[in-house]
Amino acid sequence: MMRMSPMAGPSVSVAPTDDVVLSIRNLSVYYNDRLAVRDITLDIPRNRITALIGPSGCGKSTLIRCLNRMNDLIPGARVSGEVWYHGQDIYAPHVDPVEVRRRIGMVFQKPNPFPKSIYENVAFGPRINGYKGDLDELVERCLRQAALWDEVKDKLRANAMTLSGGQQQRLCIARALATQPDVILMDEPTSALDPIATLKIEELMRQLVQYYTIVVVNHNMQQAARISDMTAFMSIDRTNPDARIGVLVEYGPTEQIFTNPAQQETEDYISGRFS
Amino acid sequence: MDGSSMWQEVSRNLRWRRGKGYLFEALGLISILVGLFVLFLLFYDVMRDGLPRLIPCRGQAAFPFFQCDLSVTVKFLTSFPSRRPEEAGIASALVGSVYMIGVMMLFSFPIGIGAGIYLEEYAPKNRLTHLIQISLANLAGVPSIIYGLLGLQLFVRALYNITGGRSVLSGALTMALLVMPLIVIATREAIRAVPDEIRQASLALGATRWQTVWHHILPYAMPGILTGAILAVSRAIGETAPLITIGALTFVAFLPEGLRSPFTVLPIQIFNWVSRPQPEFAHAAAAGIVVLLVILLSMNATAIYLRNRFERRW
Question: A56 to chain B, minimum CA–CA distance in Å?
């Protein structure tokens, strides 16, 4: 089922009625001076799911990791351009990447809970950030939001590694929620999960988007079509295919991208002519 | 070639291939048996000479009717060395060993573990750190007597005013240098075994690098670090050459009073007794070896226990 989006038009900017949470401007990423992603300009609207789709190696993960400065951790990675978040360029010199990551959460491809108790997994973020409120209450709220509470409420002290893959991934989502971010980045969050666990995560994302802005990398086009409001199609620059430079081909409401794409390359990709 | 001869060909071939497998298996078994046999022989020899001196028992052949004189054991452990072999004990050597190893751990653990954390988690991967890594691996293989010579020049002579010369402190510092590369290498291996996803997860929650190290990397790597550290310590306990080089005494009839006090250690005491002509001293030496073996084996057992108890599968 495809969701109707209030937005229309093929432009890179979203409709003026929508708040923009992240505004990416002319973003390029280099790994050891090799250009990996070129000149991305993209607006991420509030309380929407924005999906990044495209063939392998087109820089979807690179782009999403730029949005909370996780790319800083890769030796040799360098970013030019701007990412505006609440009126602040997160790549401005005085901005501390640690502060950025506190406010923009991330869920990874492979569930990666800490080998500690379920409770400690969720409580870690608030604890290191000096959370002053009721930690038990916060942990319960995050686990409820991540649709995991009923399954783990009787074993909060159990090691998180004893959970199933799908439960682990929902725990990772709860953990990301606990630092009270307003944006959650998800890098192929269901690619390591079975279909039932995948469905649960998808439902969960639709619920979370009422309160959060979600950016998700999707290798699976059907999933992007099912869950996202906005879709950005990235691909490799066809004018210079050997360099394998990732570019943004088209961005717009999901429905439009999947039913009436403006670019031939987008149509070729979504109709499965290449992957 | 008809079908049946092809099968014969294959099965003859297969028999030969299998045979090579069995041959290798047998050779491997023989190798390990040789090793075990030599070890067992050494162990038996030491026990035969040492146990009656350490724990004399009446009617040792009649196993169920053991009657052992533990007062001899206590006396051996609490007496100072003596000219009379039946009165000689290992008190000063035992206390010296424990004292020196304790001080050594104070120096080598924080520095070694700290260096390991720095190299794995903080240091940029460039030519300098690569050089440091290679040097560490080489240092771990340097003969221990070289460390003794360094300790003699540096700690005993150059830093005489601090260490007081041939003292517990000089010995501990020399030993700390000796085991530090082992601890650094063990720390780095243990840290490297923590998957990168854990780092990413922690950093993505807004943890600083240090918070990530302190709350995640170190706790998960700790069993590995401790295992390596314990094995390093058990190596230090058995070392003799560097301590003889720096001039640890061979006959000490007093307990070390402080860091700057002269001292001896178990292996030196054993070495001293072995070099005496009287067979009674040889028995005392064997008894000392038994004590040293018990210490070493229990430390290694602790290391194995820690490794198994806290081993993680990612």
Answer: 21
